[in-house]
Specification:
Biased composition (Polar residues): 471-509, 571-585
CATH topology of the domain at 118-308: Rossmann fold
Site (Important for catalytic activity): 257, 310
Bound molecules: 1,4-dihydronicotinamide adenine dinucleotide
Strand content: 5-15%
Radius of gyration: 32 Å
Number of strands: 19
Protein name: Formate dehydrogenase
Family: Belongs to the D-isomer specific 2-hydroxyacid dehydrogenase family. FDH subfamily.
Distance between the termini: 32 Å
Strand order of the largest sheet: 2-1-3-4-5-13-14
Structural class: alpha/beta
CATH superfamily of the domain at 118-308: NAD(P)-binding Rossmann-like Domain
Shape: globular
Subcellular location: Cytoplasm
CATH class of the domain at 118-308: Alpha Beta
Oligomer: single chain
């Protein structure tokens, strides 16, 4: 029977007196009798550092390793290489970052932890730490121990938690429980930053809001709690740069892992007062050296330190749970029974959790990874190549990469407002599927196109007559897009010629959402008359704004609910909503505060008056929303350029959304309703969505570029390394499986954007 090696901390006298201290070498997780009876060799030790330690001595032939995050036996890649018999690592507790997980994946070593066993214990500790920092508890207690009594000394830096913004980085089991426990404190807002969104219901229950950008997130928080695992993506996450974005005087609590926060940057930020406090129980090295800066660091008022040894997740209650959980995992392993999936970090085929980093997108295809890894392991590179540089290149089926991209896109777009203009943003939906993929997507795919409530506008300066030909009606957007592009032109044209009273079925043919600014085209000097609409230059790409004059009244406010045809502060009188422009009365606006943009277009000076009254304000707002959405579309365009697979995945989503929509339309018609009739409660809403969307997009694009650059650099380093080998070196022989049809090694091919070089090849690897 294989050897079981168990690394725990020494409990000393306390463990002898308290048998419930199960996570100690004295009480051995309560496993000793059971394992010995079954005839297993069970080695328990706290001696874990250095090549002569019990840990390093026994790991070479151990089959099972049991460790605890409270006294971590660091299982590095080197040790994994030496551990030829190792099959499974069990973490008695939560957090397996002390194991090189990527190396474990490569070697097919399973890693399991007792998920959930101490999450309540930690969540309670987090809330306590937040309170003790915000209320300045530690200096107050120290004052009492010293025999002093000077209330003002501690009250000067004591606050209430009520009314503060608290956020968690990571909203998993612990992070969510922290939010739950904070709810009764009536914080101003509860926020979270996590690449996995909480289920809507869970978020609603605690009333928390997700912030997609980390800097944006920390800049909104009075208190930041770190509750994500340590992995390549979180190591040093809270560093000097991020700390600059914290609110001055914010509090930071970290019970996740010490290395997520940069030791020196935190100490400096506390010293300078950039943060007012730091509390936690986790350290970048454990046990922490006596001179570790976090032991004694203070804010400028001599407080703000809530550090304790790593014990938040090892209360006696927690120890009972993780000891029982470790035994269960061991039992399952020994009796070949299935494991609880929630406990599996690395399974037989690789990562089974996303909590330790999003690894679904691989830089290399599976066959490339195999070839690459095979090559690297056959060559002693020394420091020519660092493994950490390819840490993300975990072989995973290409198909999962595509799904992940499509999902990521949907997630991004789920930040969208639920507003779509029927004839602009959904224009591609009106086209045939064959042409649909030339348009950029508007997710969420299942959202219905929104029909606006009927809008009423006045056209012309109150004459009630159709504008003369000197007045060219267009939206600024259509001007920017070329003015006479088929769509823009059509809209403008229709806007003039359609009767104002639009039946729902004709709403889509003009754009009531883009209110007409009034544009006056002056003739160029050599022309006596301005151009007619038909003469309007057709090849304008982007007008030059030569002067912009906007008054304070042009400030956009949120549109009120309802149709917006109410009294206008700018007009001073009620503008009557009109059903037919030739017959209805129109109030002449007092143009004391118009917004005037002057464009120079192909030699014509074009004055565009934006007249701001309620419907216009509302429509103005909608225009800004349209621009925002256009930006998003441009972002997607760029993103899809980099990742063709994403474009394809989105196209498929769009198609099925369109099919679902058609189906819905048919059903509605069968029920006797007009197809374009708005659904009950399908209210028009032009409010702008989160500003962070573009930032997220940009970051995604940047990230992809970085990945590609990294891949190229790896490739060239690999090629260089290969040329350094003597001919005939085993690492130079490449199995024919790893050559493409032209005989090129798979890793030397151009990246194809995740679409799969050769489906058959990748599929075979995916099996
Ligand atoms: N101090 C202590 O005694 C203990 C500390 N811990 C630490 O707390 C961590 C979290 O534990 P659980 O909540 O149970 O884990 P979990 O797996 O339930 O949740 C982790 C969450 O962090 C998120 N996450 C991962 N990387 C992220 C990133 N780069 N940015 C934002 N979010 C990210 C994941 O998506 C997930 O929602 C553990 O990994 C461990 O390091 C856990 C137990 C005890």
């Amino acid at each position: 029977m294989g050897k079981i090696l168990c690394i725990l901390y020494s409990g000393g006298e306390a463990a002898e007196q308290e048998p419930r201290l199960l996570g100690t070498i004295e009480n051995q997780l309560g496993l000793t009798d059971w394992l010995k009876e079954a005839g297993h060799e069970f080695v328990v030790s706290d001696d874990k550092e250095g090549p002569d330690s019990e840990f390093q001595k026994h790991i070479v032939d151990a089959e099972i390793l049991i460790t605890t995050p409270f006294h971590p036996g660091y299982l590095t890649r080197d040790l994994i290489e030496k551990a030829k018999n190792l099959k499974i690592c069990i973490t008695a507790g939560v957090g397996s970052d002390h194991i090189d997980l990527n190396a474990a994946v490569e070697k097919g070593i399973e890693v399991l932890e007792v998920s959930g066993s101490n999450v309540v214990s930690v969540a309670e500790h987090v809330v306590m730490s937040i309170l003790l920092l915000v209320r300045n508890f530690v200096p107050a207690h120290e004052m009492i121990e010293r025999g002093d009594w000077q209330v003002s000394q501690v009250a000067r830096n004591a606050f209430d938690l009520e009314g503060k913004v608290v956020g968690t980085i990571g909203a998993g089991r612990i992070g969510y429980r922290v939010l739950q426990r904070l709810k009764p404190f009536d914080c101003k807002e509860l926020l979270y930053y996590d690449y996995a969104a909480l289920p809507e219901k869970a978020a609603q229950e605690v009333g928390c809001r997700r912030v997609a950008d980390l800097k944006d997130f920390v800049s909104q928080c009075d208190v930041v709690a770190v509750n994500c695992p340590l992995h390549e993506g979180t190591k040093g996450l809270v560093n000097a740069e991020l700390l600059k974005h914290f609110k001055k005087g914010a509090w930071l609590v970290n019970t996740a892992r010490g290395a997520i926060c940069d030791k020196d940057a935190v100490a400096a930020a506390l010293k300078s007062g950039q943060i007012n406090g730091y509390a936690g129980d986790v350290w970048n090295v454990q046990p922490a050296p006596k001179d570790h800066a976090w032991r004694t660091m203070k804010n400028p008022l001599g407080g703000g330190n809530g550090m304790v040894p790593h014990y938040s997740g090892t209360t006696l209650d927690a120890q009972a749970r993780y000891a029982a959980g470790a035994k269960e995992i061991l039992e399952n392993y020994l009796h070949d029974k299935p494991q609880n999936p929630a406990n599996v970090i690395v399974g037989k085929k690789g990562y089974e959790t996303k909590a330790y980093g999003q690894r679904t997108m691989s830089l290399l295809t599976p066959s490339e990874s195999i070839a690459f890894n095979g090559f690297l392991s056959a060559v002693d590179f020394g420091d020519v190549l660092e493994w950490s540089a390819i840490a993300d290149n975990v072989p995973l089926p290409a198909a999962r990469g595509k799904e992940a991209l499509a999902k990521a896109t949907k997630d991004l777009m789920s930040l969208e407002t639920n507003y779509n203009t029927p004839d602009i943003d959904n224009s591609h939906r009106l086209k045939s599927p064959a042409t649909a993929n030339t348009q950029w997507p508007s997710f969420p795919p299942n959202s219905e196109p929104r029909r606006p409530q009927q809008q009423h506008y006045t056209y012309g300066f109150g004459s009630g007559r159709p504008p003369s030909r000197q007045f060219y009606h267009s939206t600024p957007e259509s001007l920017l897009n070329g003015g006479s592009s088929p769509q823009g032109h059509q809209q403008s044209h229709n806007a003039f010629n359609k009767p104002r009273s639009q039946s729902p079925s004709t709403i889509g043919s003009y754009n009531p959402l883009a209110p007409p600014p009034f544009a006056f085209l002056s003739a160029p000097d050599n022309q006596s008359q301005g151009p007619s609409r038909l003469d309007f230059p057709s090849s304008i790409t982007s007008p030059t704004i030569i002067k912009r004059n906007s008054s304070s009244n042009s400030k956009r406010s949120l549109p009120a609910d309802g149709d917006g045809a109410g009294p206008s502060g700018v007009f001073g009188q009620t503008t009557t909503a009109i059903g037919n422009h030739t017959a209805s009365p129109v109030t002449v606006p007092r143009l004391q505060n118009p917004v005037v943009n002057i464009y120079k277009i192909k030699g014509y000076t074009c004055l565009i008056f934006f007249i701001v009254h309620d419907p216009y304000k509302r429509a103005n707002h909608i225009q800004s929303e349209q621009k925002r959405r256009a930006n998003i579309r441009r972002g997607y365009e760029a993103l899809c350029d980099v990742v063709p697979a994403l474009k394809e995945a989105i196209r498929q989503e769009e198609e099925s959304a369109r099919a679902a929509e058609d189906d819905k339309g048919r059903k509605r018609r069968r029920r006797g309703k007009a197809a374009s009739q708005p659904e009950e409660g399908d209210k028009f809403d032009g409010r702008a969505g989160p500003k962070s969307e573009n930032v997220v997009l940009q970051k995604t694009i940047d990230h992809l570029h970085t990945l590609l650059v990294e891949r190229d650099s790896l490739k060239s380093r690999l090629i260089r390394a290969r040329t350094a080998l003597v001919p005939g070196h085993p690492a130079l022989s490449i199995s024919s499986d790893h050559l493409d049809e032209r005989g090129t090694p798979l890793w030397e091919r151009e990246w194809n954007g995740g679409t799969g070089w050769n489906d058959n090849d990748d599929d075979a690897d995916d099996e």
